Structures are given as structure tokens and as C-alpha cells.
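Reference record
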Amino acid sequence: MLGRLQRSLLYPRAFAQPDEALLDGVPDLERWTLSIPGGEVEAALLRAPGPEPRPAVVFAHGNAELVEYWAGPLRRYRDHLGMHLLLVEYRGYGRSAGVPSEKGLAADAAAFYDRLVARPDVDAARVIGHGRSLGGGVIGTLAATRPLAGLVLESTFTSVPDVVPHVPRWLLPDRYDTRAVLRAFPGPVLLVHGTRDPTIPFAHAERLAAVCGDGELRRFVAGHNDVPQDARYWDAIDRLLERAGVLL
């Protein structure tokens, strides 16, 4: 009972309304699907120009969002940095089948990653992960099983149990232990967080930064959903890409 309640709160997918118009006219867009029990999960690849193998970023969104919400805001990765941008969807969200869970989302992200790095136009040694809010946990599960050159974690928690410390851990089926992942992660990490975040307090970012071997914490006077994608935001991402050896 409490496990189902946790998932209903962790994955409020009814609030994420599909908007296909956000993908209309996006150049060099590929729509991917992955077969799972009961149907398919989708992803969207914004391909970077150029015939040579290009670096790439795998992005996972927040818990009340969809892939199309980020095709525009993150196009700088492709249009200015020359990176492929893969937006992975969550099962049970938008047009995708299934029921979301940590195990399911981790499996889907890994499968999409494997398809990405198998492409001849992708440099598998120069792939980073970028996750926002819940997506930081999803990217953490990916970093635990697949090689990533660096991580951008935005408004992300240390773990789900730390967000709800009054609930016994054994009652929480989905934990997303991001702090444990960062303790073992060998590459550089950028943490972006709002100091006024009421959903995932800024202290989570400080605790994550404390366990990183090579981490930068970039703070913004912002809440959970309004971190500005301004020059400071992208400058910090550029530094992460340089530290990771992604921008040659």
C-alpha cells in the first residue's frame, strides 16, 4: 500500500500533458521507441550536424515533465556545442506504455544509451548524462551501469528516502541513491541547484558535492522549477564538458 502511494507521489504523470507541437519543426529529429511489456517507450534524438563521430548528452527530465518540454531549452547542446541530444522518456508518461518504477526507468535509460553509443556518428567515449530533479536519480542509475564522461545534476536529491526521512526506508521501493553513485563516479560532476528550492532543499546539493571527487556546485537564487538557463548556467556546463574531455 505505501509502496503504491510512494510511486503515485514520485511519478505524478497525470500532470505531464503531451504537446506534440513542441517537436514540430525541430530539425534532424529522430523519434525512437523501445519495446517493453504492454507496449513501447519513446525517446527523441536531436542529431548534431557533421559526419564525424560527435559527442552526446543523455537527458532525463523531472517527474511532471515530458521529453518534448526540453527539445527547445536544451538545443544549445546540439546547435552551439555540436553534441547529439538524446531525450529519454519514462514508461507510463505521455505516449509511452507501462508503469514507472526505478527498475523500469533504469532499464529503459540503459537500453536507449546502448542504442545511442552503437551509432557510427556517436563518440561513445564522449557521452555525458544530464538529469533534472527525478531525472538526476535516473541518470544516476545510468552512471552506475554505463560509462559516462561526466554528469550534470540539476535540482537533484541525495536519495528519495532523504526527501521523506519520516518514512521507513524499507517501505520505499524506489530509492534512487544518487549520493552512493557519486561516491563511486570517476568523472567530473556539475551540480546546479536553487538556494530557495522548497521541493528538494539546497542542502541535498551540498551533500552531493561533498562526496564528489571532482565536483562543482553552481548555486542560483531560485526555486525548484525556475533555475535560469542564463550565461552562468551554460558557462558551468561548458566547464564540465571541458573537464570531461568532451569538447576537443
Summary: The longest strand covers residues 122-132. The first helix runs from residue 2 to 10.
